[in-house]
């Protein structure tokens, strides 16, 4: 049975579920940042998914890119990463990056503490992500 | 026409070509690290590829993971990333990570200057990668 790692609950907000992945908004108002967590028990690596699930995940990564683009930031480059060194449950980050953002041009992961959205901005971001994802 | 960005030539060694991607070994003896560059003109983002190319790229990411595992390091986690903030030509990193490696648990990108393989170790790594990829 799939069980979401608590680490995601602490750092992000639920957007909803796509056909494979649970979708979360990373709670850092500095970056438009979606996290996809495939709902598959004990999956840690991409190679733990079936080919069908990998195809679905690819579609969901593209959809997450559209959602990231809907969050109201200028975006010069998407960054997509499946790391998991800290939280090994399989998950994929889709982050919109712009010249001059706090971590630019380095990776966002591990750069600096998140700055949480305030309440209304969080509600607006969740609503925009859901609309872009059809959720 | 596809043309490889010079930045890859400066930092990595050619392994060969899979059906979609040009494959390179990142020249840093501290990490088993493969870079896939889809041979598609002007592609910068995953969304620039067709669905068929995305399916092929997924297969090639799994194959790169097997090649990374064949390079003789202990591997605790694979890291897969498509960033491109510095070199925007579409490329995917597949890196084997281990507890206590120089950047652990942070990302390898931007962490510290590469330490090039010496000649015999480079030859051995290229041979192992080619064998794992059937090249």
Walk me through this protein's architecture:
2 copies of one chain form a homodimer. Chain A has 135 residues and is of the alpha+beta class. The first copy, chain A, has one domain: HIT family, subunit A. Chain A contains 3 helices and 5 strands, in the order H-E-E-E-H-E-E-H. The longest helix of chain A is centred in the middle third of the chain and has 19 residues, at 51-69. The interface between A and B is medium-sized, with 28 and 28 residues.
List its traits.
alpha+beta; 3 helices; homodimer; HIT family, subunit A; five-stranded antiparallel sheet
Sequence stretches where pLDDT stays below 50 over 5 or more residues of chain A: none
CATH topology of chain A: HIT family, subunit A
* Largest sheet descriptor of chain A: 5 strands, antiparallel
Helix/strand order of chain A, N-terminal first: HEEEHEEH
Q: Order of strands across the biggest sheet of chain A?
A: 1-2-3-5-4
Structural class of the helix and strand makeup of chain A? alpha+beta
Report the mean per-residue pLDDT of chain A as an integer: 98
């Amino acid at each position: 049975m799939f069980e979401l790692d608590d680490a995601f609950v602490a750092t992000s907000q639920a957007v909803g579920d796509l056909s494979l992945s649970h979708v979360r908004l990373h709670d850092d108002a500095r970056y438009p940042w979606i996290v996809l967590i495939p709902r598959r028990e004990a999956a840690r690596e991409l190679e733990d998914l079936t080919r069908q699930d990998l195809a679905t995940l690819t579609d969901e990564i593209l959809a997450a890119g559209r959602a990231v683009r809907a969050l109201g930031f200028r975006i010069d480059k998407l960054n997509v990463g499946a790391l998991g060194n800290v939280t090994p449950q399989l998950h994929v980050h889709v982050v919109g990056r712009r010249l001059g953002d706090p971590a630019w041009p380095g990776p966002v992961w591990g750069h600096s503490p998140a700055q949480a959205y305030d309440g209304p901005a969080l509600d607006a971001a969740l609503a925009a992500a859901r609309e872009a994802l059809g959720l």
